[in-house]
Design a protein that fits this description.
Layout lengths: L9 E4 L6 H31 L6 H30 L3 E3 H34 L4 H4 L2 H27 L7 E2 L6 H5 L7 H35 L3 H33 L5 H25 L2 H27 L1
Parallel strand pairs: 1-3
Antiparallel strand pairs: 1-2
Length: 321
């Protein structure tokens, strides 16, 4: 009797069929975007790691943001660039699962990191006298460890539930792999998977939105009660920066989730919304958190100035000799 299930490790990538005249432009745009994301996020990581004056809890939380952004953008762009070069229209199933796993780790990690940063700002602004006692190095490390462990556990269960089900389809109708895309390949009862996925989104969103809403409201109240104008300005700038990044991610993520529920939407729109979540936040976060943060901006400027001075000194010595 013929096996009704598809056990092949090769998937067909239908949606990534780009006309030859557009392939070079698409590859150039994707390469440039990934290069910018790599440069900006690596620069932010190196600045925080190599600068001895950037050891505050805020900077330790911030260090996880570019690491997480590189995780998500690399999972997206490396597979995309590989396909644009080969133009095979084929995708290895384990590579698809790996890409989807790290993209979901990126999505969960971003929400948890932003929530931890909001908590840090709340303690710093609303409880300044207790900040040193509360936000100790050990406490910060435990929060960071909890963030990554929660991401691995929650997303690990999501994909364990997926991989236990048999596949009978091989067509991928998305520009990248994610959990809904892989779930569409399954020919079995996926009720448990869908319930867990929706429950995971609902709980994390309620938890993150609740904490962030509470902390920012308390911060705003503390700002308006403060008589110091510089304290108000700095706190409001911090709130505005965090809220901008959080709302951008929330809007893109919400549209992506809705696009999977509305079948009438074209695949191109669904792919655009999903890829925007993996392109815009990793591109904007280093600018928003790096350039707009005075301590980090000063360290970046000092780094490039010292490199330029050393280069000029070497050139003068070589020319004089």
């Amino acid at each position: 009797m013929e096996n009704p299930y598809n056990t092949s490790s090769v998937l067909v990538w239908h949606h990534l069929r780009i006309p030859p005249e557009r392939a070079a432009v698409t590859f150039l745009f994707a390469s440039l975007s990934y290069t910018v994301i790599l440069f900006c996020n690596l620069l932010l990581i190196l600045t925080i790691v190599l600068s001895k004056n950037l050891r505050q809890p805020m900077h330790l939380f911030l260090l996880n943001m570019p690491v997480n952004d590189l995780l998500g953008s690399s999972a997206f762009f490396l597979q995309l660039l590989k396909e644009l070069l080969s133009d095979s229209g084929r995708l290895w199933y384990p590579a698809c699962v790996t890409q989807a796993f790290f993209i979901h780790i990126y999505a969960a990690g971003t929400i948890f990191i932003l929530t931890a940063m909001a908590y840090d700002r709340y303690v710093a602004i609303c409880l300044p006298l207790k900040y040193g006692a509360v936000m100790t190095h050990g406490h910060v490390m435990r929060i960071i460890a909890a963030i990554w462990l929660a991401c691995l556990l929650l997303i690990g269960v999501l994909f364990w539930l997926l991989l236990r089900l048999p596949r009978c389809r091989s067509a991928v109708h998305n520009i990248y792999c994610d959990h809904p895309t892989l779930l569409a390949l399954v020919c079995a009862d996926t009720t448990l998977n869908q319930v867990y996925g929706l429950l995971l989104v609902a709980v994390t969103q309620l938890l993150a939105n609740g904490i962030i809403l509470y902390t920012y409201l308390r911060i705003l109240l503390a700002c308006f009660r403060s008589g110091r104008s510089d304290t108000k300005a700095k706190a409001l700038q911090t709130c505005a920066t965090h809220l901008f990044v959080f709302l951008l991610l929330e809007c893109l993520g919400l549209f992506t989730i809705i696009s999977y529920r509305v079948r009438q939407l074209p695949d191109s729109f669904r792919s655009f919304m999903g890829s925007s979540t993996l392109i815009f936040p990793p591109s904007l976060n280093p600018i928003v958190y790096g350039i707009r943060t005075k301590e980090i901006r000063d360290n970046i400027v000092h780094f490039f100035r010292s490199k330029m001075i050393k280069s000029c000194v070497r050139n003068l010595r070589s020319s004089s000799s």
